[in-house]
Amino acid sequence: MVLVWHFIGEVFTPNLGITSRIVYGALILGRTGVDLFFVLSGFLIIGILIDRRQSPNLLQVFYIRRIARIIPPYILLIALFWTITSFARPGVYFNSSIPLAYYLTFTQNWWMSINNDWGPGASSVTWSVSIEEQFYMFFPFVVLLTPPRLLGRALISLAMASAAARAGFHYIYPALGFAPYVNTFLRIDALCIGGLVALAVRDPATMLYLRKRRTKILRIVFCLLAILPLFLCALNTSAEHTMYYWGHSYLALLYGMLLLLIIMNKGSSQTSILRLPVLKFFGSISYSAYLFHPMIIGTFFMMDGRTETLSSLRDAALLAGAFGSTVVFCWLLLRLVEGRLIRFGHRFRYGEQPDATILESLPSGAGRS
């Protein structure tokens, strides 16, 4: 979703009249892939923490595995970014407006919030990685220090507080449009909703209750999907008002309910499209593709002396070349670096295995992360 938005929708020429508006208006949904990413991350990470909360080495193994998975591609990105920045003429893609210290401490989203600016385009997507890292640092202690029977209420409270704070911030400071989008405290509602799904699928009584009401859940999902055209119209009309007052909350609920519905229908023909080899391939390179594609796009257009847009066959060729290069680079990175480090991280094992009854309700592979 994000790649389609960045390679086509966001850069599509506005000179084609109604065609431009239709393409842009439809593909803008791709930018909400980040909201889906946060829901999935909350589901997976909080699920791991719930399963392993009794392990005596929970924090040690959890952080080793997160470091092995997240840090190496990120450090490579930062190294390449600052190398190119050192030699290239400062521009929209490569510049030193955000000091290196922010990147190394995963606090660039705070710089963006304070300065109301994305910074250099080649590294702009790392705001979401910084939210993830801060989430990894904070939420293990939320899970460990909150009694299990109160964890669901805590996640609901945090989600509601984040959504309210985002809307309140935008109402009070409407000119500061970046903070509600990239600030950690104002974006954790989707992570919490993913965590609530993780709680639900690990409780046999809750899953039995939900399975008996599968039809009602399906109706809720259809109702949320029916709102999607209205959401897209509002997003194209007033993006900040839409997203900050109700859009992010709506998307978190939509993607959370879709995730729950998919889990309840795992292995069925209805979910077979999610098992297509092409999606599995892009899933395997998704993290590095998300990290590196803006830098690769920027490099292609910078070397051609052009600004990123899709208004000619030459632009289409540059974007196609950048897309192909992104896929090949990330596949090689997975084979040569990421895969090996992930296997290294899995040499460190949690002290206790999760109860088998917990895993009965999980989608295939969810308990092995």
Layout: helices, strands, pairs:
Layout: H1 2-9, H2 18-27, H3 33-51, H4 58-87, H5 100-104, H6 108-115, H7 126-145, H8 148-172, H9 179-182, H10 189-201, H11 204-212, H12 214-226, H13 228-237, H14 239-264, H15 277-284, H16 286-303, H17 313-345, H18 356-359
Description:
The chain is mainly α and 369 residues long. It has helices spanning 2-9, 18-27, 33-51, 58-87, 100-104, 108-115, 126-145, 148-172, 179-182, 189-201, 204-212, 214-226, 228-237, 239-264, 277-284, 286-303, 313-345, 356-359. Residues 355-369 have low confidence and may be disordered.
H/E element sequence: HHHHHHHHHHHHHHHHHH
- Sheet-strand content, in percent, reads under 5%
Helix content: over 70%
Spans where pLDDT lies below 50 across 5 or more residues: 355-369
Count of extended strands: 0
Q: Please tell me how large the radius of gyration is.
A: 21 Å
Largest sheet: none
Number of helices: 18
Oligomer: single chain
Head-to-tail CA distance between termini: 24 Å
Structural class by SSE content: mainly alpha
Overall 3D geometry? globular
Q: Any idea how many domains? A: 1
Keywords:
369 residues, mainly alpha
Structure in a nutshell:
This protein is an all-alpha fold and 369 residues long.
